[in-house]
């Protein structure tokens, strides 16, 4: 198997092209927003052949080591040694520093429509040549990107196969790096305009300025609040659109004024939304506003956690499964948000309450295990005819043994008892059944 794979890859590497059967993909649509009746709210992910992905991965490994010295520092997406946190912290620093220095700045969030799918192949080859990629490697990349075919799989059916004539396919190991390369001319245009004094960004003092930050296609521009500079930025975007195939999504772009002065209203002129004082919006997955509203950030974190946990609340989960979910959901979700904004002790207490509620059933710290007994018992007793079933279970049987015994009567209740046994040890079924009465004693009328 290893030798066959090696010969296959070597043949593709030398010929710089794939066979047509290896350059086919199946496009699956992944929902990314609430209104799924709109096609733009679906993300196309291409499932590619093994041969394609092996060759693409080899080229990606070679490019990965080269790009940090080629791509501008302002592009933080998919480049080794760079992080999305840099973009978020840069915005936070501007929000804190501008009111102190009295600078009038606007943060412009640019959103490009279907950015990956609109990249012109001709533009991509010229950009690869301009940054110094060898012609042999460019031909290998062309062999992967050009001449490919795809078909969409939706509702269990396949569409007709069609040729892919533009864009980089999401699902390809090489696609993120190629897109980062495709943004280099835009960053160069912005850098040249700043050097010529036609665009002015945020001045942090000591000769440190910041005009733009980009993560993949999410572009943020810090611009001095001046209509002439705003018009100049629009001209640069139009030039970039004409050469690359990109298209600015004006309805999803946004302007947030930062500074002491009242900004002009450019909503009618630009079509962009204006985030005024206290108006929150999402930037790179983090909720922000001007000024920063910590309470709203905590509320958004709680809503996100509750939404994710709601899918698991009615599942038959063991004790280790509860712990694993808490670590993956309750720990990971706030961590990313807290990289850019501090959360007070009160907000942390609220998140811990969510943790206890999911783990034990309520936020009572004195009787946590009793609440778990009550919760599980309440679920099981509704499933079985206890007058008949309990008579069939000897008193000395453990919970796990009782689960096996009633397997023939109710499979779900049986699995639930076996799951409960993993965190209640060798407790007998009779002791477990009596736990319901105990829970009613410490908290009468409690129901899950």
Automatic annotation (TrEMBL):
Domain of life from the UniProt record: Eukaryota
PROSITE patterns with a match to the protein in the record: RT_POL
Domain Reverse transcriptase: from-to ranges: 11-288
Name of protein: Reverse transcriptase domain-containing protein
Organism: Riccia sorocarpa
């Amino acid at each position: 198997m290893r030798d066959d794979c090696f010969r296959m890859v070597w043949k593709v590497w030398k010929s710089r092209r794939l066979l047509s059967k290896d350059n086919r993909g199946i496009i699956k649509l992944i929902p990314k927003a609430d209104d799924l009746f709109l096609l733009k709210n679906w993300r196309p992910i291409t499932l590619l052949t093994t041969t394609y992905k092996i060759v693409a991965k080899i080229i990606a490994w070679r490019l990965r080591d080269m790009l940090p010295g080629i791509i501008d520092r302002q592009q933080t997406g998919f480049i080794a040694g760079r992080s999305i946190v840099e973009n978020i912290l840069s915005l936070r620093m501007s929000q804190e520093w501008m009111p102190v220095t009295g600078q009038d700045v606007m943060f412009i969030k640019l959103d490009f429509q279907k950015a990956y799918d609109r990249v012109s192949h001709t533009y991509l080859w010229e950009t690869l040549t301009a940054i110094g990629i060898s012609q042999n490697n460019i031909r290998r990349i062309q062999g992967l990107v050009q001449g490919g075919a795809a078909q969409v799989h939706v509702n269990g059916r396949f569409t007709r196969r069609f040729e892919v004539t533009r864009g980089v396919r999401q699902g390809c190991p090489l696609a993120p790096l190629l897109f980062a390369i495709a943004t280099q001319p835009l960053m160069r245009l912005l850098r040249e305009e700043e050097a010529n004094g036609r665009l002015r960004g945020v001045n942090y003092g000591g000769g440190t300025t910041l005009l733009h930050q980009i993560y993949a296609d999410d572009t943020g521009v810090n611009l001095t609040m001046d209509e002439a500079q705003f018009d100049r930025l629009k001209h640069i975007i139009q030039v970039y659109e004409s050469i690359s195939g990109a298209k600015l999504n004006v309805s999803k772009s946004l302007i947030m004024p930062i500074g002491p002065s009242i900004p002009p209203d450019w909503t009618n002129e630009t079509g962009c939304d204006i985030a005024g004082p206290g108006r929150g919006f999402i930037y790179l997955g983090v909720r922000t506003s001007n000024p920063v509203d910590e309470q709203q950030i905590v509320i958004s974190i709680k809503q996100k956690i509750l939404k994710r946990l709601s899918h698991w609340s009615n599942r038959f989960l063991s004790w280790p499964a509860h712990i694993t979910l808490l670590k993956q959901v309750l720990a990971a979700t706030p961590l990313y948000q807290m990289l850019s904004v501090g959360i007070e002790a009160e907000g942390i207490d609220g998140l811990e309450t969510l943790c206890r509620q999911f783990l034990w059933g309520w936020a009572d710290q004195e009787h946590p295990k009793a609440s778990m007994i009550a919760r599980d018992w309440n679920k099981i007793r509704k499933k079985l005819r206890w007058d008949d079933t309990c008579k069939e279970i000897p008193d000395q049987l453990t919970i796990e043994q009782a689960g096996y015994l009633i397997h023939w009567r109710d499979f779900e209740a049986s699995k639930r008892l076996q799951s409960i046994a993993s965190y209640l040890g060798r407790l007998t079924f009779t002791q477990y059944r009596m736990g319901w009465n105990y829970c009613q004693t410490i908290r009468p009328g409690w129901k899950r």
